[in-house]
Structure formats: C-alpha cells, structure tokens
Amino acid sequence: MGLSVVTDARKDWWRSATIYQVYIRSFADGNGDGEGDITGLRGKLPYLRDLGIDAIWINPWYPSPLNDGGYDVADYRDIDPRFGDLTQATQLISEAHDLGLKVILDIVPNHSSWDHEWFKAALESAPGSPERARYIFRDGAGPNGDQPPNNWRSVFGGPAWERVTEPDGSPGQWYFHIFDVSQPDLDWNNPEVREEFLGVLRFWFDLGVDGFRIDVAHGMVKDMTKPDLPYDESGLLNSPSIADHPFFDRDGVHDIYRGWREIANAYDPPRLFVAEAWVEPPERLARYVRDDELHSAFNFDYLKSAWNADALRQTIEQSMEVLHAVGAPATWVLENHDVERVVTRYGREVTAAPRGHNRLVLGESDRALGRRRARAAALLMLTLPGGAYIYQGQELGLPEVLDLPEDALQDPVWERSGRTERGRDGCRVPLPWTTSGPSAGFGDNGSWLPQPAGWEELSVEAQQGDPESVLELYRSALRIRREEPAFESEALTWNQDIGADVLAFEREPGFMCVVNIGSESVKLPVHTEILLASSPLSEDGLLPADTAVWLRP
C-alpha cells in the first residue's frame, strides 16, 4: 500500500515531525552476514514511508570496532564496511528524499574510538605533545604516578581513567574516558578539535544529510581542575546530581552549539540538531534549545515517567511550559537504544524507567498488560504537541529480550560492571520481518544477537493487515496525525472532569484525546465520532483501564 509523500518543504518541519530511530546493525541485513546494513535499510524505505513517519535517525554507521555499539567512532567521514560505503550512503539519502523522508545521523563529539588516527598518534607521541593535546591526558597521582588523577568514575562502571604505556615501554600518563576505556574523551578546549567537528558537519551536510542527533550533548566541556567527587556519579540514566558538575552540563557547551547553529543555518533549508542531554531540571534542558543553539532535545523526563496520570500530566505541562518559553517545541519519546522497551517496563509493578543499565532488578513483567499500556501510551505520545520519536520495533510491540545468553552479550556495561548488569543488548535484538526464515526475515544467515523463540509471531508480516495489531495501530495513528489540522498547533486544553486517573485534553480544531490510566472503566465525554482506540471499548461504551481513545468532540 503506497502513501503520499509525508514530509513537506517547511523549514521548521521538525517542530511536529515523527522521527523513526534506526539502529542499523539490527534493522535489516541485506548481504547475509548477520548484521544490518545500508542495503537492508534501503530495501525497507517503502515500509517506513508507508508507516507514516517524516524522518529516519540512523545510529552511528561510521568505522568502529563496535566496543560500544558504534558510539566508538574511528573515522567520522566514512562508513563502516560491515554496513556499506559512502556511495551506498549517498544513494540511501537520495532514495529517502525521493520518498519524502528526511535523514538524520548520529554524531559522537564527546569521545572517539581508541582506533581513531588521532588517538593512535597520541599514544605514539610524548606527554605534552600536540597529538596528546587533542585528548585529556594527565599525570597520575601518588609518588610514582601509579594512581588515577582523581576518583571520577565511568558511566559504564569502574574508573574514568586508564594508564598508557609510553613509546619507550615505561608506565605513563592516564587518559580520561567518561564511557568505555576504548572511548577516550576529546579535549574541547583545543581549537583543533572544534574545527575538526565543524568540518565533519559540513561533510555530511554537503552529502544531503538533514540533521544530526548529538550524542552526550551535555558532555564535551570539562573542568579538569575539580577535585574528587564526593560519591559515585555513574549511570547513563542519571542526570548530574551535584551543582557545577566537572564533566556534565557545563556552560561552555553552549558556545560550541552556537557555532554549530551557524553552520546549520548556512544551508537551504537549514539543517537540524537534536540534543541527547540528560540534565535536570527542565530549565537546564531549555538552555540547549534557545533560538541560537540546538533545535530540539529528547524529553527524558517523559521517557522515564511512570504509567501514572499525575506523573505524566506534570511532565507534559512542565515540558511544554519550559520549552515554549524559549520558542522550542516539546518532544516525546518512549523508547530508544539505551533503555528497556516499554512493553516490558509497563508490564511491571514499578513502571518508571530504572536507573543505569540493569534490566533484571525490577521483577517479572506481565507482557499482556505491558502491551495494552504501551498501545495506550502510543496514542498519548502521538497526540501531544511537538515532535515524536519511535524506536525501531516499537511499532511492532516488541518486548525487551531479558534472557539473552551471557556469551552473546556485547554491551560494555556487562564486563565493566563485573558481569552484574546485563546492559542494553535486550532492546537491540534484530527485528523480525517475516513469519519464517533463519532470522524471521532479518537476513539469510542468522542475526548477531540471537532472536528469542516466537519472535516471528511479532513480525511485520504477521501483523500486516491485522486491524488489532500494534503495527496497524501505529499506521492508523500516524495517518490521522498527518491529516488532522489540530496537530498543526502547539497547544492543548486539559479536561480534568473525567477522573483523577484519566488524562483528557483537546487540541483545536476538533480533536480530543482521553487516556484511562486507572483500574476502573470511565464514561467518555460527549463526542460525535471515535477516530481511533488503543483497545476495544466495553459493550456499554465505557473506556476500559489502560486504554486511550481519539475523539471528535
């Protein structure tokens, strides 16, 4: 089934866009080597167009040893051969544009891979050299320099410092890494680093890329003069919990982004930047999306929120108020490549997102309950004013894979935590496309992470055309989102008369969303038409628990 082009020519298309996240290694395998690639993605572009999205965001596809899923970049201006090459990437961008889809890439400016030519040169050079000045090298503490310079810790566990062996074979300096030891942090006080990334932006913009999602946008600038931290500041989903943090959310990042915005504005149409910034409170996040910096930012407060009416309402109101004050749209997201899939999380007694990477501490999950809530959450997310993000497989209702064999785990969190936290591999299992085949249609020769039994039952082929499926719910919702004039506004009006456990609001002209998050059925407000429901209404027309409905008032 073909649909009309979904992306218009507006320069501010991103304010209300639906963006689909592609974790390329797990999306579709076009050459049969067990890993997703550009060829596989190109073959699925019509599927994405027909889903009804506006843009795709592709996780890192650069050359990388994949010690951290591609977020350890060895060359920012090339494609990893396992995924394809620059010619194929250029063809993908062109084909996506022909289908009305924008293309957003990941950029990883906080750190490089230790396989990057710059870091190799740093290891071959002496302390104090220009090569080492691109990174953060320091002498060690203690009489022989055999202790880390301070007690700062890696987000992935363990010290944030690694000692090197000097070219003459002697124990040497230490380098700083917020993440894995294979991801040395760049020194953004160095003008050479800043100029290099301006060149990287221009390189991809000139190839037709429409924007970038900025990894660890709240990092980059550090104050290395700060003393030891008073306690462990690790955990990817933990926002900095102390003021004036030495390496997160420092004011200097904003000068960097003002320069980046000048580059983006030099293109016609202007290019887009989206921040991954784990910062609190929301007023701190708003500083990243002022009109001379980045365009939008992921709403992690919303992603982490429990399935609770008060918590969700508060997050929605606060997000819109703070972001609109600086002229930026809100964004809404339920899943991504770093967090537990919402079907599994919402099936638990505790529905707020867990801290860190541990996936096994919150008990059993009721998959049927989780899927019912996830369906309702999808309609809520897609009707809120602003942009929305869908992580691949979310539209299929995929659960977290919690029982991957230990020898299959590849997330660095697993090893750096002493094999106590399984990490993020459970949300990165390759997608099921068909009801048969060696990897449920992902590719011809298996998949780099093993798919669980019954995965094919959740495949695109299994759900295609089934009006009760999660896939068809998303397709219907995205079609209505695209067609309804009410979705062009950036405002909503709450209706709090239905019940304490109900979220209900209107968007003008003529659109209402009602979400029952309570345990009892509720009566719907007066309406003229039911446009879409996440689950069937009761026989007497009541809205059951954990159900959302779109109405015409």
TrEMBL record:
Pfam families: Alpha-amylase (PF00128). CDD domains: AmyAc_OligoGlu_TS (cd11332). SUPFAM superfamilies: (Trans)glycosidases. The keyword ATP-binding does not apply. Residues 21-428 form the Glycosyl hydrolase family 13 catalytic domain. Keywords: Glycoprotein, Hydrolase. GO terms for molecular function: alpha-amylase activity. GO terms for biological process: oligosaccharide catabolic process. Transmembrane segments: none annotated. InterPro entries: GH, GH13_cat_dom, O16G_dom_2. Signal peptide: none annotated. Belongs to the glycosyl hydrolase 13 family. This is Glycoside hydrolase family 13 protein. It comes from Phytoactinopolyspora alkaliphila. The lineage of its organism: Bacteria, Bacillati, Actinomycetota, Actinomycetes, Jiangellales.
